[in-house]
Design brief:
4-stranded antiparallel beta sheet; 8-stranded antiparallel β-barrel; alpha+beta; single chain; 18 strands; 295 residues
Length: 295
């Protein structure tokens, strides 16, 4: 690295704040290669994948590599359509987005971590925590049970989600081959709720049409706390249906109407709820983030 990079001040003290960065994992992969004298994929195979019998798992060393039973990724388009995912060579993201495995192997790997067979007791506790102490991995309550939540999405054509329940030593994993960050988490939680409560989980209830779609028309801007600060959504109407206008004006992303008056944003399988003031739409809520309608 250049000395000017090394001389830069730290953004925060190590361990004091979380910052999402793929480069951290890419750098770690390179450190593993230098320290071990082996390629990243070879090191993983010898020390993790083979010892823990993760037979479907591997590392993308190049785009030309043939992977048995590898699925094709898809991109949701419009209200109901799909197209092939865009090209991406996963080997350029070694350490950050180069691994592949089945849902079964993902669940098996998480179970191994939870059992304490991968890390020391102290490191396992630091990673998972307990009911009175939050670990490095985020946790949430699912049907009255503490669950460790893991999520991955490449913004290309694949996503994965897993929940691990330490008290019952239960792991549930879902992998999908579409560019949608929300489908996998939705399915994982639905399966978990059904397994834990022994009850059937009701699917989303959709509506056939939107009442007065023109009232939602316009641009909406998110605040500085959004994933992309200040990002805008432009809602348009086509054939009485709502769509988010993408950068490519020929590509639209549907807002599927729900029976409760909200919408399912197809790009992320997330609920969008519009807010009104004296009957006029003034804002929308995407997850827990608010976007204000622009004049």
């Amino acid at each position: 690295r250049r000395s000017s990079d090394l001389d830069r001040p730290l953004l925060n003290a190590p361990g004091a704040q979380h910052r999402y960065s793929d480069y951290n994992y890419t750098l770690l992969a390179r450190i593993i290669e230098i320290a071990s004298g082996k390629a990243y994929g070879q090191f993983l195979t010898e020390h993790i994948l083979r010892p823990y019998h993760l037979s479907s798992a591997g590392n993308h060393a190049s785009w030309a590599q043939i992977v048995a039973n590898r699925a094709t990724g898809y991109q949701p388009v419009g209200m109901n359509d799909f197209e092939n995912a865009r090209y991406f060579d996963y080997s350029i993201a070694t350490g950050a987005a180069s691994l592949y495995m089945s849902a079964e192997d993902l669940a098996q790997w998480i179970m191994a971590i939870g059992s304490g067979s991968v890390l020391s007791p102290a490191s396992t506790y630091e990673l998972l925590g307990n009911s009175g102490h939050e670990g490095l991995l985020p946790s949430r309550n699912v049907a009255g049970h503490r669950a460790i939540a893991l999520n991955g999405w490449d913004n290309i054509g694949f996503a994965a989600d897993a929940l691990y329940f330490p008290d019952s030593h239960l792991a549930i994993a879902v992998t999908t081959n579409q560019n949608d960050s929300g489908i996998a988490p939705y399915l994982t939680e639905a399966i978990a709720r059904s397994a834990l409560t022994k009850k059937q989980v009701e699917p989303p209830q959709f509506s056939e049409k939107v009442t007065d779609p023109q009232r939602y028309l316009g641009k909406y801007r998110f605040g500085p706390d959004f994933y992309v600060p200040g990002q805008e959504l432009e809602i348009i109407v086509r054939n009485d249906e709502l769509f988010d206008l993408q950068k490519d004006p020929e590509r639209l992303m549907g807002l599927i109407p729900m029976s409760d008056g909200s919408f399912m944003y197809r790009s992320h399988w997330a609920r969008i709820t519009f807010q009104t003031d004296n009957g006029r739409v003034v804002a929308l809520m995407f997850d827990d983030f608010k976007a204000t309608k622009l004049p």
